Amino acid sequence: MSEILLLIIAAAVVWRLYLWSRAPHDAPTRSVALCLLSAGLSYPVAMPGGTTGIDTVAGHGTAKLIQNVLLLLTVYFLMCFYLYSADRSAARRRARWEAVVVSVVAVAISLAAVTVPHREFAGSFSTADMTVPQIAFFYAGAGLYLMYALGAAGRWTARYARMSGRPHATGLWMTAIGLGAMAVACAVRAVFVAVRWSGGTVPDRLMAGVAFWLVVSILLFVAGVTYSAARSRITATRLWLRRRRDHRRLTPLWQLLTEVYPENELRPASRGLWDRWRARGVHRRYHRRIVECRDGLVDISPYLVDEDGGPDLLHLEPAELASRLRRAAVTIRQGAPAPGQAVLLAVPKEDDRDADVRQLIAVSEALRLTA
């Protein structure tokens, strides 16, 4: 579970940093990127290897303090995202006020952490001695601020989700549920702190269940934040793959037409290897090939009319049309003049671009099979 969560967080951080690099002055994008970056940095710090390494260098408890400060920054930048998205005119002032609040909390828990011996602060939440006032204040202060910020962010997210349509609403609801679940987990942990500070005990199984609940809610939150972007990337990738495949399937028809009418071949924007793989280059080559095929069919159509007295060529099957195209190409190479006027060829019944491409591919596949 921890490895999967780390991979998801790392992918989300990289993606959001990329979006920030493309819009460096966009405040909401910057806030989300810094939010996920803080969350991404806090997670390895909390893992056993990261905790041991930092505590060995800087002293016991340092990793825990760094992790909690990073979590405070995570929810602060999350709040900034909603502030800048809702009302940019007043967002800067509110963001500064929230920065003061989170700074006060961070300084307070830091002072609480450094005023107790390392051995008292070295344990985890489940093993820490909450009867020590500084320890209880450290966990309670951080937990209550997280509850406040996460609860507010979850409420704002649910509001946006109700106003949005799918698929954005799906990602927003996932995010809202994750934020609400994290706020609930923080509230429960604050209750645990109060119980243990007063001398009571909390069953280990209950604390483990809340910890697992927190991990699942974080995973749901990260998945919700990246859902819309991930879905868009998947859709774009599927379109990219389909157009690369269709471009290749149109090759037989394109080759026949450009051999007899080479002037119809449009000049490519780039012949570089990279242009063959990047999305913009693939889409451009795809549309250019369709235009070249259509221009070629218009030019070659007069040579198909005289075969049976000028029939309606729109109703020819792809195999028959392919056969006539081959014979017409031979006639053109022999220098024979056009016996008729241009007519429409391979026009689909549906009036859309995809149907047009399917019709061209059917003719091209027929040419390939009869080669």
Structural class: mainly alpha
Low-confidence stretches: none
Q: What is the succession of H and E elements?
A: HHHHHHHHHHHHH
Tally of alpha and pi helices = 13
Cα radius of gyration in angstroms: 32 Å
- What's the main sheet like? none
Average pLDDT number: 81
Number of strands: 0
- Fraction of residues in β-strands: under 5%
Helix content bin: over 70%
Distance between the first and last residues' Cα: 55 Å
Task: Describe it.
This protein has 371 residues and is mostly helical. Helices cover 75% and strands 0% of the residues. It has 13 helices and no strands. It has helices spanning 2-22, 27-46, 48-58, 62-86, 88-114, 118-121, 133-163, 168-197, 204-249, 251-260, 279-300, 318-333, 353-369. α4 runs parallel beside α7 (133-163) and α12 packs across α13 (353-369). The longest helix is centred in the middle third of the chain and has 46 residues, at 204-249. The model has no long low-confidence stretch (mean pLDDT 81).
Care to give the gist of this entry?
With 371 residues, the chain is mainly alpha-helical.
Features:
single chain; 371 residues; mainly alpha; 0% strand; rod-shaped
Task: Give the SSE layout.
Layout: H1 2-22, H2 27-46, H3 48-58, H4 62-86, H5 88-114, H6 118-121, H7 133-163, H8 168-197, H9 204-249, H10 251-260, H11 279-300, H12 318-333, H13 353-369
Helix pairs in contact: 1-2, 1-9, 2-4, 4-5, 4-7, 5-7, 7-8, 8-9, 9-11, 10-11, 10-13, 12-13
